[in-house]
Design brief:
By secondary structure, this protein is mainly alpha-helical. It has one domain: MetI-like (MetI-like fold). The protein has nine helices and no strands. The longest helix is centred in the N-terminal third of the chain and has 44 residues. The chain is elongated.
C-alpha cells in the first residue's frame, strides 16, 4: 500500500484535471435537473390529456424510461447509434439520456401529487371559464410542484450521484478523473475514499438547500 505523501503528491499534480472534472459533473447534474424537470412537466401535462391514445403513449414513455436502466440507455445511444450512422458526443449522449430518464421520474412524482389534489377547485375554475391550459398553469402546476418538493429534490441528489456513470461513455467528469488518479499510483482505496467524501459533501449541500426550500414552499399536510 502506497504512503499518503505519495498520494497527496499525485493528487496535487492532477488537481487541475480533477477540478475540471468536478465542474463537468456539476454542469451535467445541474443541466439534467433543469431539463428533466421541464420535460417532466410537459410529460405530466400530457398524462392529463383527454385523448386516450396520448395518455397511453405517455404512460408507455414513463414506464419505459423508469424500467430502462440508465447505463443501458447511455450505452445504446453512445455505442449503438454509431452503427446507424448517428454519432453524438459523450456530453450530448449523457444530457439526452439523463433528461429522458429524469423526466419520466419527475412526471411520475407530479402525477402522484396531482392524484392528491382537491378536484373541486379544478371544477370551480372550469365553471368560471378557465380553459384546461389555464387551469394547469395557474392552479394545478403550482400545487403539484409544491407537493412534490421532497421527491424532486431527492431526484436532484440522484442526478448528482448518477452522473458518475457517465465516465463509462468517455465523459471525463469527476469520477473519471479519480479513476485516472487511481490508475496512476494504484492507491485505489485513497482515490475512491476521496471521491466518496466529495460526493458526500456535495449531497450535504443539496440536502441543506432542499430543506430550506421545503420549509418555505411545502404545503402543510
Amino acid at each position: 500500500m502506497g504512503s499518503w505523501p505519495s498520494f497527496i503528491r499525485d493528487l496535487t499534480e492532477q488537481m487541475p484535471l480533477i477540478l475540471a472534472g468536478l465542474v463537468k459533473t456539476l454542469q451535467l447534474a445541474g443541466l439534467v435537473s433543469v431539463s428533466g424537470l421541464l420535460l417532466g412537466i410537459v410529460v405530466f401535462y400530457l398524462t392529463l390529456s383527454r385523448s386516450t391514445y396520448i395518455r397511453n403513449a405517455i404512460n408507455a414513455y414513463i414506464s419505459f424510461f423508469i424500467g430502462m436502466p440508465l447505463i443501458v440507455l447511455l450505452f445504446l445511444m453512445y455505442y449503438g447509434l454509431p452503427q446507424w450512422g448517428v454519432r453524438l458526443s459523450p456530453f450530448t449522449v449523457a444530457l439526452i439520456g439523463f433528461t429522458f430518464n429524469v423526466a419520466a421520474y419527475n412526471a411520475a412524482y407530479l402525477k402522484t401529487a396531482y392524484n392528491g389534489l382537491d378536484r373541486s377547485q379544478l371544477e370551480a375554475a372550469s365553471a368560471q371559464g378557465f380553459n384546461p391550459l389555464q387551469i394547469f398553469r395557474l392552479i394545478t402546476l403550482p400545487q403539484v410542484i409544491r407537493l412534490s418538493i421532497p421527491a424532486l429534490t431527492n431526484q436532484v441528489i440522484a442526478n448528482l450521484k448518477d452522473s458518475s456513470v457517465a465516465f463509462l461513455i468517455q465523459y471525463t467528469e469527476f469520477f473519471a478523473r479519480v479513476q485516472e488518479l487511481a490508475a496512476t499510483n494504484f492507491q485505489f482505496f485513497k482515490a475512491y475514499l476521496l471521491a466518496a467524501l466529495v460526493y458526500l459533501a456535495l449531497v450535504s449541500v443539496i440536502v441543506l438547500c432542499a430543506r430550506a426550500i421545503e420549509r418555505r414552499y411545502l404545503i402543510p399536510a
